[in-house]
Amino acid sequence: MAPRTAGETMYCKEDHIAVFDSGVGGISVLRQLYRLLPGEQFVYYGDSANAPYGARSTDEVRRLALSAAKKIMECHQIKALVVACNTATAAAIDDLRSTYPELIVIGIEPALKVAADSFPEGRVGIMATDVTLREEKLNRLIGLFPACDVEKIHAPGLVELVEAGKGNSPEADALLRPVLSPYAGKIDALVLGCTHYPFAAKSIRRILGPKIMLADGGEGTARETKRRLAEAKLLRKGTGGVIWKNSLDDPRMIRLSQNLLSQDW
Ligand code: DGL
Q1: What whole-number distance in Å separates Cα of residue 80 and Cα of residue 87?
Q2: Ligand 1 within 6 A of 159 CB?
Q3: Which ligand 1 atom sits nearest the alpha carbon of residue 196?
Q4: How far apart are alpha carbons 201 and 176 in whole angstroms?
Q5: Got the DSSP string for the chain?
Q6: Which atom belonging to ligand 1 lies closest to the Cα atom of 84?
Q7: 88 CA to middle of ligand 1, Å?
Q8: Quick check: is 85 catalytic?
Q9: Which of 129, 138, 191 to mutate to test the pocket of ligand 1 (most atoms within 8 A of CB)?
Q10: Which tens digits make up the pLDDT trace of 138-176?
Q11: Is 221 close to ligand 1, i.e. is its CB under 6 Å away?
Q12: What are the pLDDT digits (tens) for 179-210?
């Protein structure tokens, strides 16, 4: 199926909502979308063959994100594309929007506002990938909350553990302990600025304590998707569902994806 372009666009309610991430992380956004929009048909595309995106150059991430969007649209009629990946949003959201000017394209950004609303003068950690942490977009976001004391935190290797289904595991505890222990009792909230990280929430709480506020962008992204679809009169009421696609073409990735969607959170 050829991707629809400007001028030939007639989106309809029955079209799918595509949700895209570098791998299984975007399922933390999909679960919020599914809760809020139970009558929609989703296509979830995880680019696990190319994960992690977060350690790549910005240009590489941009190229991969554009190519993933093209692949999705070659196979599915979609009315919205949710970029459920902070890294791909930071690197490629402008290019995606200019390539598909009439499509609803929703990005995600670290949920600093959620943390700052609760702790306006607090100390907040933002844990995200190297790409997200170095892009100017994040500095601009941090600049909106001058009273907050924001600390950027790298957690190399955590995305790979979540991709291996080990987000809540002794391995995740061992990886996160040296990264997060210095902040235990010293930050008010931790922003999970990578969509894979909510699947490590239990490990994170074991280190930072059960009361730490964890903020992720999944819910806000789902609300914005609903708002944009309602505005365009494209909300569907019917039987919802998910079509699973993964660039690794390995049935284990689809099983892991389904397990992550049904996991309690
Ligand atoms: N899940 C992605 C994000 O939200 C990135 C993971 C990766 O490095 O591939 O940033």
Answers
A1: 19
A2: yes
A3: 1
A4: 11
A5: -PPP-TTS----TTSEEEEEESSSTTHHHHHHHHHH-TT-EEEEEE-GGG---TTS-HHHHHHHHHHHHHHHHHH--EEEEEE--HHHHHHHHHHHHHHSTTSEEE-----HHHHHHH-TTSEEEEEE-HHHHHSHHHHHHHHT-TTSEEEEEE-TTHHHHHHTT-SSSHHHHHHHHHHHGGGTTT-SEEEE-STTGGGGHHHHHHHH-TT-EEEESHHHHHHHHHHHHHHTT----S--EEEEEETT--HHHHHHHHHHHHS--
A6: 4
A7: 7
A8: yes
A9: 129
A10: 999 999 999 999 999 999 999 999 999 999 999 999 999
A11: no
A12: 999 999 999 999 999 999 999 999 999 999 99
75 in active site: no
Token pair for 203 = 């490990």
Name the token pair of 196: 């894979």
Ligand 1 contact, 19 CB (< 6 A): no
Range 86-96 average pLDDT: 97
